[in-house]
Description:
The longest helix is centred in the N-terminal third of the chain and has 25 residues, at 7-31. This protein is of the alpha+beta class.
Amino acid sequence: xxxxxxxxxxxxxxxxxxxxxxxxxxxxxxxxxxxxxxxxxxxxxxxxxxxxxxxxxxxxxxxxxxxxxxxxxxxxxxxxxxxxxxxxxxxxxxxxxxxxxxxxxxxxxxxxxxxxxxxxxxxxxxxxxxxxxxxxxxxxxxxxxxxxxxxxxxxxxxxxxxxxxxxxxxxxxxxxxxxxxxxxxxxxxxxxxxxxxxxxxxxxxxxxxxxxxxxxxxxxxxxxxxxxxxxxxxxxxxxxxxxxxxxxxxxxxxxxxxxxxxxxxxxxxxxxxxxxxxxxxxxxxxxxxxxxxxxxxxxxxxxxxxxxxxxxxxxxxxxxxxxxxxxxxxxxxxxxxxxxxxxxxxxxxxxxxxxxxxxxxxxxxxxxxxxxxxxxxxxxxxxxxxxxxxxxxxxxxxxxxxxxxxxxxxxxxxxxxxxxxxxxxxxxxxxxxxxxxxxxxxxxxxxxxxxxxxxxxxxxxxxxxxxxxxxxxxxxxxxxxxxxxxxxxxxxxxxxxxxxxxxxxxxxxxxxxxxxxxxxxxxxxxxxxxxxxxxxxxxxxxxxxxxxxxxxxxxxxxxxxxxxxxxxxxxxxxxxxxxxxxxxxxxxxxxxxxxxxxxxxxxxxxxxxxxxxxxxxxxxxxxxxxxxxxxxxxxxxxxxxxxxxxxxxxxxxxxxxxxxxxxxxxxxxxxxxxxxxxxxxxxxxxxxxxxxxxxxxxxxxxxxxxxxxxxxxxxxxxxxxxxxx
Length: 725
């Protein structure tokens, strides 16, 4: 049967769903890593997560993942059933994270097409040892044996029906949400979960793994299961579970004769008892008790009639009750409350983004066509249609941008994990705080900032924050703290890594810089600002650590951080107060795809500048200029003095306006710095599709990309931070 698996689609679903489960698992564990123990909800959630991963991995025949997830499931089964008091919480957290790491690594192998050959034996042995400790250590009771979470892998696909006096029979109906994809795989997961308890099991449709068309049938008609097992209805419901894919599970107990009828119910669903939705829950329960008493008093002959399926108010009427809230009847649930979601391959999103970019370029080609410049043309209708086209194009960009925007929550949670791991290994007591983790940025941006953030956080933990003993000696009573924060401002995202450690040592950095020949021999140390000194640590090969550790000291990392950030048009700022800590701030764009820009010309060349950094356009007179002997130029505007960059001279162009009176000044503001940019003329405002500069062209200061204009020519996109610095 394994040979009939549709492995390609199942594998995609397996990786997607288990990836989400592992992210939720890590978030749950890290949220309670500083608590005394896991609360009951967390224990149940981790147990269900491991149970789901075990089942789906068993279906896909990834035996090592199945084994390690089942062993962790054993641990939480014992915690859930026995409630022991002698559980080493931090050790348990480490075990869970170790299992999460192992499964994540194996899933990465699956994505890359590599063999899933990780050895989980040491992890399983450690979990066995841990489980024995919490079972037998401390004040363990000498009474009955602890409940066991027994899982016996079925040796055959079908289970031989062997009915005993203890056997019970169930008809199960599973209903999936309308937006659920690949329902055949989800249905088979339910079957696989029930195999643990099944004596006999039948299901319809049968060809779950060989016929993808049955997904439509399952969505329309539901999924039916006939189950023979020695278990209660509650155990059946627990094994199947209602989640984001399964909307409802109906379980009806029947007798052997009804079970043998199979799925032939005379083309009708089993009768569902009529529920009184107008009465209170207490009234419903009272009526049920009265009905049961009346049924018990009926003559024995009437007992031979087929029994209606057993039902409690909670099965069909009561929704899950939240702490502190009254029970809510199902009929009160607002319609349309659940949002519809689908998963889309990121490559398709990228392709759609590229197509919209081409649409923007084509729009510019149409609107700037030379055919429209013929004198005497009446373009009123054309201009109206062009305005509508521009509006639709802008709306399309807004929608696709919003689809690509994802919160920083998962990225921040990974940093939480790094702080936990590194601080444990270094023996430092460090608190991790997240601020603004719901801030959304483009998915491509997140891929570029993950590694830089990881390095900055490791630096903060490793040699930013002192050891516990050093903090006590210096009079710092509070715990070490790393704060990761994010906010949006003027089309940019600010992400800061702040610590309350020792801060940067200016003198030590200067001494190292002088030793490496970075400093100007004719410039005294006092002439360097703190900001300039702190930027030295971002140079390749620069490190003030005397010893090389597992996490820092090799002089590599910070330069890679800066390169990765600059590659997406961002910048790194460093602030530090000796003895009180440091703040590393990343300033990055919200998106890399399409920007609003001003097109300008210098000689025969075209340039584009993002509108967000342009504060003013101004024409100046020659008497406003200040010329320094070394060639530097400044301009006085309303009493303020600004440095001037002549773009034609900056890039050594062949032709450009030498006179400032014949050109236009753009006042650019980047952070707290301002500079005036002199260009020949302004062409206009335009939406710009950002394209990277080809790799065979050497990186030029002040340029961040290129774009195609409406007339087909190429314009270079100016990088304001590169010009201002």
